[in-house]
From TrEMBL:
Its cofactor is pyridoxal 5'-phosphate. PANTHER family: PTHR42735, PYRIDOXAL-DEPENDENT DECARBOXYLASE DOMAIN-CONTAINING PROTEIN 1-RELATED. The lineage of its organism: Eukaryota, Metazoa, Ecdysozoa, Arthropoda, Hexapoda. It comes from Diabrotica balteata (Banded cucumber beetle). The keyword tRNA-binding does not apply. Residues 634-655 have a biased composition (Low complexity). This is Pyridoxal-dependent decarboxylase domain-containing protein 1.
């Protein structure tokens, strides 16, 4: 913050003063950087875009190879097409951006294949590059620049830079090197050579901001000065053409600008000093070395980044600092990143070399997310390689906080990783039995979840539903599975709701431990699913009853209101006139108002509410406070129809309504006859049998002396015969009424009186 504030302040100074400050800051910073990385006789270009330095170096080579490029532009490229060489392992966007900025066709790019038989499969094949250079020269193309990697963007492998350098010298091609492993040149041992060793390349890209953990620092492109290899350069009079090429390409620093790009870097180097820079770069390499060594002991973890210490692994970062070493050994003995992934276990305990199955990509993604949450002290990135799959990457050179994890934090990370590996192995082990058990289950169906890393997904589907999946059935099935997941989550949080490719919901199983029992988990899903299914039927039936009850009550109230209107007269409801009529002829108390309605879910009828207002409570039939038997509600309307999903209950009730009592049945004193019971001719009712209001009596049913006959007995078919003890029988007035529908009369015989 202070540095940027100072830069803004300097931008407001007078131009001569600003020019002097810019020159001083840039000159000092360039001198420190070149000495730090052992790249003498070079100049520096400071830029904010990480590809801008490469673009201007390539433009400089265009001016070098095509002398008329400044005057004729693209016309000079017709006779000999410039060629840019880059590894296929490098990001394609780099060369595409390069061609767009320079106005070159993509035909100028020559992708160099990687090693297939010898060496790392992530590094450039030098033999293929040599053949391509020779063929291009023979066909009239112009080799322009070779872009090599000292630490590939993901895995951190290093191209064979020394051999590539020799090929570039032979064909007069510029070599540009980039990557985090370039930071190894700043180790103290290499700096002690005092420039006796030739530079590693013609130009380098340095990202000191990420290497030192200081955000806001500019990128640096170091490029060698032209004519440094010419022994007669001191005898040359005047300015050579080569010395003007950086100016033509825009590689020189503009001291006339109001911004001083090198000021933040100058301030950072002043604060850290040479020892501070060495210490931070050393800690970056040590962090990679520690993690690589810790991961190497896990059998099902494949490490894809190069091994620190070279192929033999005998060198350490501390030894490289204290002992002399060559540039190739320095590059091979350091690792700028650690890339690893969880792979299947091989039968012969050999190294797994193929691409992992798609399911393991999901497992590695899950592992990376868990490590990011539970062990954030070691920053992990989730990447994907074309021929490998999803991998986890730790790169200390991209750690913006600038402080690497210490030994305790690294050990805590390894403990967390080991715990998650146990879970991953258990999940993979249980997955095979999980699929087999689901396939044999009649109500569970396996669901493919492309983005789910857990055990898998199943859908609870009752038998017969899979063949009749209409739109309504799909909605009910989704609702059933959603309720199932909500119920399961109350017992175990490992269950979650998922969605298949066909849009149907399912139950997702999470990760398992070695102690988990897959069979018990699936049995739990089946039992809970059956319970939810039964509850859904009851609720659907109950909701249908309530719905029909509301409709019936509405119709009854509407009908009763119309009848009251006609009984009272329309005149009473006319404004002003009705008031006079009511004064002249008041309403009788018996007229009353419209009775309310209540729904009796037990009997499935809509009843009037006069008993509720009389006793100030709801009660069942035949129950009242103080032993008083409440009268039957004056209005009772049965609810018809049943829901389709309650067919089993409907069939049961239909069987119940068909019950018929034959002659051998004797009803006890506590028996109560339902409305659906049909009495045969020879059934004898005991003294205290209570007949319900809608019991249907045959013509020859004998009533005992103390049978309580309700008014609705008049609806029975035939003639009701009364015993000789008629004097004790309580007959109500309704026995003398005529049923208007059946035209049947209840007769009282003379010999029974």
């Amino acid at each position: 913050m202070v540095t940027h504030s100072l830069a803004v302040y300097c931008g407001g100074l007078e131009r001569p003063i600003l020019q002097k400050l810019s020159t001083r800051f840039t000159t000092d910073t360039t001198r420190w950087i070149t000495q730090l990385f052992g790249f003498l006789d070079c100049s520096a270009f400071y830029h904010e875009d990480h590809l801008e330095g490469l673009v201007r170096v390539t433009r400089m080579m265009l001016h070098c190879k095509y002398p008329r490029y400044l005057e004729d532009g693209a016309l000079t490229l017709n006779n000999s097409l410039p060629t840019i060489y880059s590894s296929v392992a490098s990001p394609l966007g780099t060369v595409q951006h390069l061609c767009r900025q320079l106005g070159l066709p993509l035909a100028c790019v020559r992708p160099v294949p990687v090693n297939t038989y010898f060496g790392s499969q992530y590094t450039m094949d030098v033999s293929a590059l040599q053949k391509m250079l020779a063929d291009d020269v023979a066909t009239g193309r112009m080799p322009l620049i070779v872009i090599a990697d000292a630490g590939t963007p993901v895995t951190g492998h290093i191209d064979n830079i020394s051999r590539i350098r020799e090929l570039c010298k032979v064909h007069g091609t510029w070599l540009h090197v980039r990557g985090h492993s370039v930071a190894a040149l700043a180790l103290p041992n290499y700096n002690q050579r005092n420039g006796t060793v030739p530079p590693i390349a013609d130009s380098l890209t340095l990202t000191l901001g990420s290497w030192l953990g200081i955000p806001g620092l500019p990128m640096i492109t170091l490029y060698r000065l032209w004519g440094t290899n010419n022994p007669n350069r001191n005898k040359q009079v005047g300015v050579s053409r080569e010395s003007t090429l950086p100016v033509l390409a825009g590689l020189n620093t503009d001291h006339q600008s109001r911004r001083i790009l090198s000021l933040p870097l100058w301030t950072g180097l002043q604060k850290l000093g040479t020892e501070g820079v060495h210490s931070r770069i050393k800690e970056d390499f040590l962090a990679s070395e520690r993690l690589w060594s810790a991961l190497d002991v896990f059998r099902q973890v494949r490490v894809l980044s190069p091994k620190p210490g070279g192929e033999s692994g005998t060198y350490t970062v501390a030894e490289l600092v204290s002992k002399p070493s060559s540039i190739p050994l320095l590059m091979e003995s350091t690792a700028c990143s650690v890339v690893f992934q969880f792979v299947p276990e091989t039968s012969d305990n050999s190294e797994y070399t193929a691409k992992v199955p798609p399911y393991y990509d999901k497992l590695n993604s899950w592992l990376g997310q868990i490590l990011q949450l539970d062990a954030p002290q070691v920053p992990i990135d989730i990447c994907e390689l074309e021929n490998i799959g999803v991998v986890l990457r730790f790169c200390p050179f991209e750690n913006v906080c600038g402080q690497q994890p210490n030994l305790e934090e690294m050990q805590a990370f390894i403990v967390c990783l080991e715990q998650q590996l146990v879970i991953l192995k258990a999940t993979v082990h249980h997955r095979e039995s999980f699929v087999k058990l689901v396939e044999v289950s009649p109500v569970l169906k396996i669901v493919d979840l492309p983005d789910w890393a857990g055990l898998g997904g199943v859908r609870y589907c009752p038998e017969g539903w899979e063949q009749l999946l209409t739109d309504q059935a799909k909605e009910e099935l989704n609702h059933l599975n959603m309720v199932l997941v909500d119920t399961l989550r109350s017992t175990d949080a490992a269950f979650s709701l998922g969605e298949g490719d066909n849009g149907l919901m399912c139950v997702r199983f999470g990760m398992l431990t070695p102690e988990s029992d897959v069979e018990k988990l699936l049995d739990l899903v089946v039992k809970v699913g059956q319970s939810v299914e039964e509850n859904s039927r009851v609720l659907d039936s109950m909701s249908e009853i309530v719905k029909k009850g509301i409709e019936t009550a509405t119709l009854d109230l509407q009908k009763e209101n119309e009848e009251r209107l006609w009984q009272e007269g329309i005149v009473r409801h006319i404004p002003i006139v009705g008031t006079f009529v009511n004064w002249w002829s008041p309403k009788t108390k018996d007229a009353g108002g419209i009775r309310g309605r209540s729904l009796n879910l037990t009997q499935g009828v809509v009843e009037s509410t006069e008993n509720i207002y009389k006793y100030h409570m709801q009660m069942g039939q035949g129950i009242a406070p103080g032993g008083i038997t409440p009268p039957t509600p004056q209005i009772q309307t049965p609810i018809g129809g049943s829901h389709s999903r309650s067919s089993s209950h409907a069939s049961a009730s239909s069987q119940q309504s068909a019950i018929k009592l034959d002659s051998s049945v004797k009803l006890d004193s506590s028996a109560k006859l339902d409305s659906s019971v049909k009495l045969d001719s020879s059934v004898k009712l005991d003294s205290s049998v209570k007949l319900d209001s809608s019991v249907k009596l045959d013509s020859s049913v004998k009533l005992d002396t103390s049978v309580n006959v309700k008014p609705d007995i008049v609806k029975s078919d035939g003639v009701v015969k009364l015993d000789s003890d008629f004097s004790k029988l309580n007959l109500e007035n309704s026995l003398n009424k005529v049923n208007s529908q059946n035209k049947e009369v209840v007769e009282i015989k003379e010999n029974n009186i």
